[in-house]
């Protein structure tokens, strides 16, 4: 029998049995007269795939920030083995380090106070002075070329294996030592017996990659991201090339998956007494803003191969969870929606977006999703929750953030100082 847990005047989503302490306080029930009811939380003792959708300006990124805050609170309180990694497309989540003084009175009305969160931001070189000025822990986003698979290089350069450069790049990588740099690829190609035109094309591609300033033999070890005590933000706002953005996110996601699978194997060997060392298995929460860019519909992108075929289909056993935010659920790969066990849907008006969610309407919903959406109204922060674990739906108001929200829209009109 499925039911929603009720305890201490608090409703717990994402669980069908008695929950423990691993819960995220996300808001309160919202009535049609705009009054607020009991607190509502999400149990995260097991992995989840959470989708946040909504048109621009209605709380999509704000809600993701609330979930990140709650995960960080949980990590600091009782669960040090939670790793939190954000793929930040627009560079807006650094404000987690700034108190939400703007909504201090609103927080007080909820019985809450402002709070800041410790961050480690990996970003391009040009963004580093900005974060240093703010006193935020920042590191250069530098990755090792030798750790990228040939398939990932195809994606980043937007080439095919049968293209002239694709063929020579494959040969170069297969013939180089295990630890190589971009200059080693270029040198191998220049010394190979191919025509000068293909060498020139290859040189242009390698020069382009060098200009991005994110590849080096001395790049970071992806496992270090999982060892961070802070929230980890991969700020991709300094990267203009979309293939590179999605390539970086796909590469990091792919490596984390492999690391977690191996750690889980070692943990099981310890459990059955075959080895003495207990593997440190962390529960990874991977949040992607503007998810439609990384897992697009009807495109065989790297993101699909990593996040759908690995994270969504196989990620539960190695302890992988995802938070995906998009303002256009119709543009995201539709298989993603079928894997989500919790959906938080803010206001949507695009018929295509509403239709994409309606196709996945669960049998336990007593009305169409479009009819449920009408109950949300136009108030920001109100969301329809579809909880596929307890098989229930609710309308809730997301709590105010402890930290500053950097994803709001600027206004041309400001109060005149007196």
Q: Kindly report the spatial arrangement of strands forming the biggest sheet.
A: 1-2-4-3-14-13-12-5-11-10-6-9-7-8
Under CATH at level 1, the class of the largest domain stands as Alpha Beta
What best-fitting shape do the alpha-carbon axes yield?
Answer: globular
Q: What's the mean pLDDT score?
A: 89
Strand content: 15-25%
Please provide the ordered H/E string of secondary-structure elements.
Answer: EEEEEHEHEHEHHHHHEHEHEHEHHEE
The CATH architecture of the largest domain can be named as 3-Layer(aba) Sandwich
- What's the end-to-end separation, in Å? 62 Å
CATH homologous superfamily caption of the largest domain: P-loop containing nucleotide triphosphate hydrolases
Percent helix among the residues? 25-40%
Q: Radius of gyration, Cα only, in angstroms?
A: 23 Å
* Poorly predicted runs: 1-8
Biggest pleated sheet: 14 strands, mixed
